[in-house]
Write a structure and sequence with these properties.
Layout (H helix, E strand, L loop, with lengths): L10 H18 L2 H115 L3 H18 L1
Length: 167
Amino acid sequence: MVEAEPFYQNPTFWVGVAFFVFVAGLLYAKTHKTIGAMLDARADGIAEQIEEAKALRAEAENMLIDYQRKQRDAEKEAVEMVEQAKEDAKLMAKAAKADLDAMMVRRERAAAEKIAQAEANAIKEVRAAAVDVAVAAASSVLTDAMKGKAGTALVNDAIKEVESKLH
């Protein structure tokens, strides 16, 4: 059999003794209060960070709500602007149509005036041509009539008549 060794030669015993001495030293130096105070300070710091995070989250939620409201307002405004632009386009189209109609009436009137003027000019030209033809015909007839004895007699009568009127 194996003989049992004394307890003070066992390393496990000395590890246990060292542990109890260490813990007793810590208790004597009141490190547990220091460690507790450090843990409490850290817990307070974490609590402050949590409160700050909550405040930041609330602020972010408020900003999100505000931006969503602004987005809705911008969308409404954009829709209103599009509707207004459509109405303006309709009004502008009506105005352009009215202007076009008025311009067409003016052009028709101007064309009618040009046609009437051209007709008047054509009538004048035809009358002038008719007068020229009549004068040429009369001249031809008179020239034929003035030949011979009858023409000489007419000229002599005309000269006598002019002399009598002048004296």
